[in-house]
Amino acid sequence: MANTALITGASGGIGRDLAALHAQRGGDLVLVARRGDALQDVKHELEAKHHVTVHCIALDLIENDAPRQLFERVSALGLEIDVLINNAGFGGHGNFHERDWADDEAMIRLNVMALCEITHLFLKGMVARNRGRILNVASMAAFLPGPGMAVYYATKAFVASFSQAIAEELRKTNITVTTLCPGPVKTGFGERTNVSDVKGFQANVADSMDVARKGYEAMLKGKLVVTNDWKLSFLRKFVIPRTPMRLLLKVSRKTMEKG
Ligand SMILES: NC(=O)c1ccc[n+]([C@@H]2O[C@H](COP(=O)([O-])OP(=O)(O)OC[C@H]3O[C@@H](n4cnc5c(N)ncnc54)[C@H](OP(=O)(O)O)[C@@H]3O)[C@@H](O)[C@H]2O)c1
Predict the structure, then answer these.
(1) Most buried pick, 25, 76, 90, 161, via CB within 10 A?
(2) pTM as predicted
(3) What is the average pLDDT score of the chain?
(4) For the purposes of burial, counting CB atoms within 10 Å of the CB of 49, is it exposed (0-12), middle (13-18) or buried (19 or more)?
(5) Does ligand 1 lie within 6 Å of residue 182's CB atom?
(6) So where are the chain's domains?
């Protein structure tokens, strides 16, 4: 049976590792990101190693009509998407009022709008076939406000809330929606988001492949939410919900300081 996964943000980091995991299982791929040359590298590597078919679609998902363009290009290839992995995303550091609005707007467009519209477009086919797996990449940032990274944390709270809600809407179908919520991971994210020297980003930085594997396996099992290690899971389930908000904000702000 065909098993084609569409992965956004597959030119590097967690997305590239998720693509490798899917190819290892013999699944074909549609890879999306802006850097077409980097996508081609992934394609050549995975096709040679795993004898799968990999399609590359170079697209800036911040553009208004990008999700629709993506859907049309996948349809033109005659492909049905069995696995949808919404992974592309970025963050930004600094007090909200001091940040460039264009950067935060782009972040909301990618992390929230594109993820939502892509899900809407591809979910319809999954529902018609009554089959599919969705993995949305959020973050531990989904579970508390992030002073110093306010918009990023809020976008990830959106992803976790949205994903869990549609998982419940789809509960009586053969479609599952899993939310991956990693802590810090060693990828290009640290540099792009300007958080490599932020305190909370320096401790317990996870390996990208380990995180991808946790997410991919949880997706195959149809789990609702997964973090990449038990300490984060403990924080999410037991510490964060029991901590008074003022204290949580203070601690969260501290972890966002540089140095
Ligand atoms: N690394 C962490 O510490 C961490 C922790 C928690 C959650 N996450 C989340 O994990 C996901 C993957 O991040 P990562 O750590 O793997 O970061 P990364 O190495 O920076 O990878 C981000 C991916 O998204 C793509 N991308 C960025 N902007 C795009 C755009 N406008 N249109 C299309 N694709 C775009 C990038 O490709 P191009 O540059 O080629 O477009 C790249 O493939 C993100 O959603 C991030 O928020 C990361």
Answers:
(1) 90
(2) 0.98
(3) 96
(4) exposed
(5) yes
(6) 4-255
| pLDDT reported for residue 71 | 98
Please work out whether the CB of residue 60 comes within 6 Å of at least one atom of ligand 1. Answer: yes
Q: How many residues does the chain have?
A: 259
Ligand 1 mean position, distance from CA 110 (Å): 10
Residues of the chain scoring pLDDT < 70: 1-2
CA of 39 relative to ligand 1 center, distance in Å: 13
Q: What is the pLDDT of residues 116-131, one digit of tens each?
A: 999 999 999 999 999 9
- Per residue in 15-51, pLDDT tens? 999 999 999 999 999 999 999 999 999 999 999 999 9
Asked whether 250 lines ligand 1 (CB < 6 A), one says no
Residues 187-207: pLDDT tens digits? 999 888 888 888 888 888 999
* CA-closest candidate to residue 123, choices 66, 80, 60, 168: 80
Ligand 1 pocket test, pick from 112, 153, 189, 225 with the greatest ligand atom count within 8 Å of Cβ, gives: 189
Q: List the 175-180 sheet strands across, edge first.
A: 54-58, 28-33, 4-8, 83-86, 132-137, 175-180, 225-226
Nearest to 255 by CA among 183, 201, 186, 192: 201
- Helices 66-76 and 115-129 cross at an angle (nearest 10°) of 30
Question: What is the pLDDT at residue 1?
Answer: 56
